[in-house]
Write a structure and sequence with these properties.
heterotrimer; B: mainly alpha; 12 helices; 77% helix; globular; C: alpha/beta; Rossmann fold; 2 domains; 12 strands
Chain lengths: 338, 322, 308
């Protein structure tokens, strides 16, 4: 296993649209190391959530096909039957979702929702389960854990619900935690608290965290390594510091450039990426998928069949176009509108 | 919660007042009265009829009559039936028990049939069991009660002879009493109750089915799956409980359905309940009885709605008032 | 004379209770706030959910019932027109919503959606109307071929631009933008923000820009109003608020902004912990006994803070 806790090999996740399957994740390979925070960043429709859900095969509906392999502790998760996978879900790989209000069962008390995993995966007695749950509520910083234990989700604030969600994911001490946009639905100050909590817990438990987000600032705050996704593919992968200081792929560079948080003053305009993310059924399936959005870069700068190049140790970039990339012009009004 | 209940009951008072005035005036405007047709005009002098009308207070101004009527009604006296020559309260009391038992059996049957079918339909949606159940429920939805009854009566009452086709109890069983009496009552109620229930189940089945299908896609079910909860428990612990909440609250509303259905049903099966009494009291212009029944129906409908609210508050923690 | 002047605005929502459902108390959504907007200025209104920021926006466009205070537009008190159709005010002040999809009727074409305000206020021939709509769409970068399409045929960012075209149709002087880009992806968000800036220059528009995103607000706004518990805790220009915040709530809010530089993450964390501790220590000094925010005190010509 070469020291990786999770290895994704050539993953293709397809959704059925009007009778045909279209790959939302199109040939992704990744290696997650123990004890690291690995961020997958991209805009909506890039396939990051489809990728996250593929690991435990949690897609909604019946119109999804997951191919490739996902090795975890020597087993290919994709070769397991659904009931076999249930032994991994919640026990060895935990999951945190975006909106803690809808992700919690409205009719179950918080305590019961956390304990459910213990009932399934351990032979703890009821007293042991309650003890573990209360201990965990404490360590996720829940105010008045004893009270919250017997409360329903609607009685808690958004931040407290997300703390409960984190407790659910961590209760069986999993070695991998997948967090799918864990702070997107929260207010700024609560987001900061939850991010700090996640980082502290990750350091304590030494588990690997796969963080799915659209927010580059969250990536900068949290991640050790980052993969940038566009149109179902990873276009760039690097250490967080390297990626932010030395971004290579045109998409990564454009994204960083259009972040209003990095443009500190109100002078001028933000960078705009031309065109838009194509729909799943209209994705270009060959060549550099980002090329339609940088039309001023000549065609021969792209590879016909893009491959990953190592530009620095651990820093991979898809397609050769980054070597020839420049922003179209000085950012004036005309370009600002793209 | 008691505050809500008290408030709802307080709101009921003006509603009932307006309704009762409206009803009273409507009954007043109906052509004929209890004496029309009751007394042969060829043998009774018209002067005698007029005398009787004066005696019964027919020529008093409407508000005088209304005040008299409502004053008595509040004390539980709805007057005497013109036709039966008995206190209205007593007539209704006999019939109300019949309707109550029939209604109870109907509601029980509805839920006994609808919940398992709805759950099966939702659990295996778009698979053969669901297709069969959906076929049944669309069929039931499209069939008016009267058509179903006209199909069931010849089949089960005449041809097969399994059930009686009228009445509420066998006179022989009535004299035997005890268990025989009870069984005979049940025997008489089964066919009408079944008729009403079969039609009403369709809506609950379809509702339950769509709730279950929706919940399968909900975020908290994904959370449960991410915890490794086995499929069966996903349904039993997470989906069914959520899907059944609105259905549980339908119990109250189904009172309304059963009552309005009773008018037709009891007439078809000549079952001596309130519905049948209502129809006959109207044809006989026995308006003390008709008025009392409408008021009673109104109270029951509002009580049903209130009951639904109370059930919902009990089963759904989100609606509990601290 | 300022374009908009809000004085001691109060919006209370009644809490009903008891058997007779009488009003027993109020939720003070907005509890006495005052601010002005000059022509062509962008004022940012920042707060977390439940702070009352959207209620202020709704009050200004006449969608909320005031409990107290006044709203002056060009010097004229418009509170008496709330709920009524007062054309000059209705023309002058428009609103852009966060969830633009639900504010666009899905059964109507873009042409009708954008022309609707024109039809209410101006009598144009069909040809004139079409020309005007094409011009408006061009301003937000959409070609005339889009006029005959329906809202669902567009992406989120394009729909938000249609919303903007519709809002500027009557050449308003003030636009209330309530979280206009919160639902959008980064690259699309950049585009919409740029358009907002361009039409501002073109029409000399003023914005009341309501947002929880301090990064976006910093990029867009000249003057900032920080809101907490229905009141302003601090107001000032970009410099005042981001570099010299005085109220512990503002400081906490700014410390919470994630930094897009990974080298800053430990520093940011230390800052957050320090500010968090400071908040706990100084809570009593920054809020009155019943948790209310104090009245604003002037520190400089631009900078005000709510301290006793």
């Amino acid at each position: 296993m070469s020291g990786n806790i999770l290895e994704i090999k050539n993953l293709v996740t397809s959704f059925r649209i009007r009778g045909d399957y279209y790959a939302a994740v199109d040939g992704v390979s990744l290696e997650i190391k123990p004890n690291e925070v690995f961020a997958i960043v991209g805009e909506s429709g890039c396939g990051k959530s489809a990728l996250a859900l593929s690991i435990l095969r949690l897609h909604k509906g019946f119109y999804t096909k997951v191919e490739g392999s996902i090795f975890f502790k020597g087993r290919d998760l994709l070769s397991l039957r659904d009931d076999e996978l249930n032994d991994v879900r919640g026990k060895e790989i935990g999951m945190i979702f975006q909106d803690p209000l809808t992700a919690l069962n409205p009719l179950m008390k918080i305590g019961a929702q956390i304990e459910e995993s213990l009932t399934i995966h351990t032979d703890y007695t009821a007293a042991q389960r309650a003890e573990r749950t209360l201990e965990l509520l404490n360590s996720v910083g829940m105010p008045r854990p004893g009270l919250v234990y017997g409360q329903y989700p609607h009685e808690l604030s958004g931040g407290m619900r997300q703390r409960a969600m984190i407790a659910i994911a961590l209760v069986c001490k999993p070695s991998v935690v997948i967090a799918d946009e864990p702070t997107t639905a929260l207010d700024v100050t609560i987001q900061a608290q939850i991010l700090d909590l996640l980082r502290d817990l990750q350091r304590q438990t030494q588990s690997a965290v796969i963080l799915i987000t659209h927010d580059l600032s969250v990536v900068a705050e949290m991640a050790h390594r980052v993969a940038v996704m566009y149109a179902g593919q990873i276009v760039e992968l690097a250490d967080a510091r390297e990626l932010f200081h030395n971004p290579k792929h045109p998409y990564t560079r454009s994204l960083l450039e259009s972040n209003p948080s990095s443009s500190s003053s109100g002078e001028g305009f933000l960078h705009v990426i031309e065109g838009m993310v194509p729909n799943l059924d209209r994705l270009p399936r060959s060549g550099c998928r980002f090329s339609p959005r940088i039309p001023w870069i000549p065609d021969d700068a792209h590879e016909a069949d893009p491959t990953y190049r190592t530009v620095a140790p651990g820093h991979l970039v898809l397609c050769s176009c980054h070597e020839h990339f420049r922003f179209s012009d000085e950012r004036g009004t005309s370009h600002a509108l793209a | 919660m008691w505050k809500t209940i008290v408030r709802r009951i307080l709101i009921l008072i003006p509603q009932m007042f307006v309704l009762s005035v409206f009803l009273f005036l409507l009954a007043e405007r109906m052509p004929g009265d209890a004496l029309t047709g009751m007394i042969d005009p060829t043998t009774t002098r018209p002067e005698r009829l007029e005398e009787l009308r004066h005696q019964y207070g027919f020529y008093d101004p409407w508000h005088v009559k209304y005040t008299r009527w409502i004053g008595n009604a509040v004390r539980g006296d709805f007057g005497r039936s013109f036709y039966h020559k008995l206190p209205v309260t007593r007539i209704i009391a006999d019939r109300a028990a019949n309707t109550f038992w029939l209604g109870l059996l109907t509601v029980l049957l509805i839920y006994l049939i609808a919940i398992p079918l709805g759950i099966t339909s939702g659990r295996f949606h778009d698979k053969p069991p669901d297709r069969a159940i959906s076929f049944y429920s669309y069929f039931a939805m499209a069939t008016p009660t009267i058509v179903l009854a006209l199909f069931l009566i010849p089949l089960f009452a005449f041809r097969l002879g399994w059930f009686p086709f009228g009445g509420s109890v066998d006179p022989r069983a009535f004299s035997q009493g005890g268990i025989h009496y009870f069984l005979s009552r049940l025997h008489h109620m089964l066919l009408p109750a079944m008729t009403a229930a079969l039609v009403s189940t369709a809506y609950i089945i379809q509702y339950l089915r769509s709730e279950i299908v929706d919940y399968e896609q909900s975020d908290f079910v994904t959370t449960a799956r991410s915890k490794g909860v086995p499929q069966r428990q996903i349904y039993s612990r997470h989906i069914f409980r959520n899907a059944l909440i609105p259905v549980a609250s339908f119990v109250g509303y189904s009172i309304t359905g059963v009552l309005s259905g009773s008018v037709l049903l009891e007439t078809i099966y000549s079952y001596p309940g309130m519905g049948e009494l209502f129809v006959s009291s109207i044809t006989l212009r026995d308006y003390p009885v008709a008025n009392a029944l409408i008021l009673l129906f109104a109270v029951l409908v509002v009580t049903g709605t209130l009951l639904s609210d109370i059930i919902l508050r009990i089963v759904d923690p989100r609606l509990k008032i601290k | 004379m300022p374009l908009l002047e809000v004085k001691d605005l109060k919006v209370y929502f009644p809490i009903k209770g008891g058997i007779l459902a009488r009003t027993v108390d109020h939720v003070k959504a907005v509890d006495g706030v005052s601010f002005i907007i000059e022509p062509g200025q962008t004022v940012g209104l920042i707060g977390e959910s439940g702070s009352g920021k959207s209620t202020i926006g709704k009050s200004v466009v006449g969608l909320a019932k005031l409990y107290g205070g006044s709203i002056l537009y060009n010097g004229e008190d418009i509170t008496k027109y709330i709920g009524k159709n007062r054309s000059s005010y209705r023309r002058g002040v428009q609103m852009i919503f966060q969830d633009v999809y639900s504010s666009l009727d899905p059964k109507r074409r873009v042409l009708d959606l954008v022309a609707e305000p024109l039809r209410n206020f101006e009598k144009l021939t069909r040809a004139e109307e079409r020309k005007k709509v094409d011009e408006l769409l061009a301003i937000v970068g959409l070609g005339p071929e889009n006029a005959m399409k329906y809202p669902h045929e567009f992406s989120g960012g394009q729909r938000q631009r249609i919303g903007i075209a519709r809002a500027v149709a009557l050449r308003p002087k003030l636009i209330i933008a309530d979280e206009p880009v919160s639902a959008l992806d980064l690259s699309v968000q950049a585009q919409v923000l740029n358009y907002l800036k361009i039409i501002q220059q073109e029409f000399r528009l003023a914005y009341l820009f309501i947002s929880h995103d301090l990064g976006v607000v910093r990029f867009m706004c000249d003057h900032l109003l920080i809101m907490h518990r229905g009141r302003f805790v601090e107001t000032g220009n970009r410099q005042d608020v981001y570099e010299d915040a005085r109220h512990i709530y503002t400081r906490q809010l700014i410390a919470a902004i994630p930094d897009p530089d990974p080298d800053m993450k430990d520093e940011k964390r230390t800052l957050r912990d320090r500010v968090g501790k400071e908040y706990d220590d100084l809570k009593d000094k920054h809020y009155s006994e019943d948790g209310r925010v104090f009245d604003l005190k002037k520190l400089s010509d631009t900078h005000c803070v709510a301290l006793p």
